[in-house]
Hints:
Structural class: mainly alpha
Number of helices: 4
Mean pLDDT: 79
Amino acid sequence: MLPNPVYGGLPSKLRKEITEKRRKQDQCVRHIISREYLLETRISGSDRYFKNKWEEYRQEIEQEEMNLQLYRLCFELLFNLIKSVCIVAIIVLAVLYMSQGKLSIGAFSAVISILNIMHASFNQLRHLSTYNFA
């Protein structure tokens, strides 16, 4: 699995933990329903233990997936906040310079055009940041 270049190491660590817990959860299911373990599990009475472990792993997986989503949402919120502040600052500066006569209307429209291009670029970066490289 390649690490996501935008989010860094935390999500890949969480994904590894989730994968490991899913593997353990699958092993619990195999102990409960698999033909090779079924008789031994029922005779020893450990089927309740494996059901409890399966439920425990399920809750841990849900919590870690929630943490991963929260991390992604916080990153996107920060990214959108920075983008919005930059766009407002550019527009304010453009209007200020245009009112002082230092910026022509054609240059102002070029600034607005550049803002559209920047907006499209930010959307592409956001799309890449949510792409699963696994």
